[in-house]
Amino acid sequence: MSQTASIPVGIRAQTESAAIAGTSSVPWTIWCGVIGIISIVFGLYWDISWHQTIGRDTFWTPAHLALQFGGVMAAAVCTYLIFSTTFGDNASARDASVRVWGFRGPLGAFLTAWGGVMMVTSAPFDNWWHNAFGLDVQILSPPHVVLALGFLGVVLGILFLTVSEKNRAEGSARIMLDRLLLVAGGFMMVLALVMISEYTSPNQMHTARFYLLVSIFTPTILLMLSSVSERRWAATKIAAIYSALMLAGLWIFPLFPAQPRLGPVYTKVTHMVPMEFPLLIIAPAILIDLLRPRIAARSPWVRALILGPVFVIAMVIVQWPFANFMVSPAARNYVFGMANFPYPFPPSQYHFVWEFQPAEPTKSVFALWLFAALAVASLSSWLGIRRGEWLQRLRR
What phi, psi does 25 have (nearest 5°)? Predict the structure, then answer.
């Protein structure tokens, strides 16, 4: 006669806790989320190049589709994760979730789903904007701001999802999740700096406003992700990924032939026009990685008041003289891209790109703005440190 044996409650609870405590492989949802981020960044870069080369086109351009595909795929995967957690019978998944409006799922899944909705919403808004107001050559137009909020939701959501999974993982899966975290961080840096790229051209690098704008998001991203990562040179790797992506765009896109389809055409364009040379944020990133272990015992505010000014000073030291080179004839080549102009740009205005824009009107105003950059960088650093500490505890 067959017999059945019941598992004691205590042993069953320990088994379930062990299942919650660690995962042995990277979930497919994380891979899909990272692919979604990659598609968003690639689509955004492609779309900007498309506007500079071909002009405003329909929604169904390959660039738009790549951009929206990334957001929709990441949001769809996270929506599935929410519904399977809410209505499924996986106890460990429910224990590693939060509750929102009666639904259960990882915090990152809810944020990603919201970001995907924002991205999809921006598409008809953008079409209406163009039909109502004509050609839009600005990155930060109202529909693009809605799109940027969608980017932010998707990228942060996938980052949160990856971190919570990493904090529960063990062994090789933990190592791989940490690597994916840095990859996503590099793509997040591209998104952040592309959104302010209209104000960070080489001819603006001798203004204090440039250093203020770069200090808003960059220290937060570097310190937030390097705090939660287990890699020694985490901030440097994030900056290196950003630099590699921007250089790849600068050097690969011009290899593809293209021509304008919308007038007026002032500059003859025969190939895809890329974005500009990347900012040299790798220099302050290296200093951040060198300093963080030495001041780890200090309070978050003390660390922020050290790392924030270090970021700004390092940027001034490397970017200021590099700007002199970038506006010179030596940079007007394939490698540095200072001879790439979009089709609506008149040749009579080329010289403005190679001349520094007027800085702040007086030295006192310049000093005031630079002091503001130091303050913003310190605040951004503090936010990155505190968010990094929070991410270290994130498990849902």
Answer: -145, 160
